Known about the structure:
This protein is α+β, with helices and mostly antiparallel strands. The chain contains two helices and five strands. Strands 1-2-3-4-5 form a five-stranded mixed β-sheet. Strand 4 and strand 5 form a beta hairpin. The chain is globular. The two termini are 19 Å apart. The model has no long low-confidence stretch (mean pLDDT 85).
Amino acid sequence: MHLLRRAHEFEYRSGQGRDELGLADIWADAGATRAVVVLRGIPPAEAESALSALDHSALPYLLRPDTRVLVLTLRSCGLGEKARAVVLPLSA
Length: 92
């Protein structure tokens, strides 16, 4: 896997109707058949909205239509806690 975008900033609409900013790291393998998108700084409840916005803005320009995408959302952690990732159902 190689990094296509690090901390790619994008805007999405939250469930409350507010425009929010999110960050995404986008990785792809050499053949661009598989990709991993890591959403950072986005609450898990808002992850699907964020992914939808990213799918309309950046992903079509970076990945082929037949690329298999795994989406992770990194949740923030408190002091002394380990960072956790949640795997989202494929919707990109």
